[in-house]
Amino acid sequence: MLRLAKGVLIPAALLIIWELGWHISGYESLSRPFDIALALYAGLLDGSVPRLTWQTLKAAMFGFAVASALGVLGGIALGLAWSAERVVRPVIDLLRPIPSVALIPLAMLIFGFGVRMEASIVAFACLWPVLIITITAVRSIEPSLIELSRTLEMKPLQRMIRIIVPAALGRISVGLQLALAISLVVAVTVEIVINPQGLGYGMMSAQQSLRFDVMYALLVWTGFVGWALSRAGQWFVGRCSPGRRASREGAPA
């Protein structure tokens, strides 16, 4: 209970400062926390906030899923094949620094507006942490495990499923957690810049129509969605952690 009270202390203080700032400054663009709460409640009640949230999460999760599949499979392949990784590494170093939003014109040319355009940019941004961390995770596997799989004459697919993935899953899950957080950030950014859907577009529309309470309400809600995704990622990392799995398996029934 004390821990919860400490956690609420800073947000409560910020809300009080915000309320005082509204009374002192008189800026119309600085909505009251009470008005923002009413706008968020109204948006949840009429279904507009869930609809915008679903549009954003659909594109973010689509891009995240594509990046996760390509990053994990590519990272395992490059982590095992040192010579291939040396050939591909210059391409990775060339593409990785490109800002994902710089690909918006190209993605629009290929896909037009919509989920696929947004998801392609999300996938590009999420690919690199998954790929690089997976390569590092595979390189960190005990060589004796790889030799054991060769001694048992496992096929490549069996080796990957039974040896490589379980041994590297703890570190790979960290890369997936990072990519999960990036997916929401990039999705909302694309919606603010160009794509007419989702939470980002909703915030821009509210700002342009001078509905600042709605704009702040969507901003707060986006923060809550990001927090929920972060907690889900932490839970996933905890479930995939070798020490956590070992403690659960060793616990008495």
Mean pLDDT: 82
Strand content: under 5%
Order of helices and strands: HHHHHHHHHHH
Number of domains: 1
Q: What secondary-structure arrangement, pairings included, does this model have?
A:
Blueprint lengths: L1 H24 L7 H14 L1 H33 L1 H14 L8 H8 L3 H25 L3 H9 L4 H38 L4 H11 L3 H29 L1 H9 L3
Helix pairs in contact: 2-10, 3-6, 3-8, 3-9, 5-6, 6-8, 8-9, 8-10, 9-10
Throw out a few tags for this protein.
mainly alpha, MetI-like fold, 11 helices, disordered C terminus
Give an overview of the whole structure.
With 253 residues, the protein is mainly alpha-helical. The chain has a single domain, classed as Orthogonal Bundle (MetI-like fold), CATH 1.10.3720.10. Helix content is 85%, strand content 0%. It is built from eleven helices and no strands. The chain has helices at 2-25, 33-46, 48-80, 82-95, 104-111, 115-139, 143-151, 156-193, 198-208, 212-240, 242-250. Helix 3 (48-80) runs parallel beside helix 6 (115-139), helix 3 (48-80) packs antiparallel against helix 8 and helix 6 packs across helix 8 (156-193). The longest helix has 38 residues, at 156-193. 32% of the residues are buried. The model is unreliable at 244-253 (pLDDT under 50).
In short:
This protein has 253 residues and is mainly α. The chain has helices at 2-25, 33-46, 48-80, 82-95, 104-111, 115-139, 143-151, 156-193, 198-208, 212-240, 242-250. It has eleven helices and no strands.
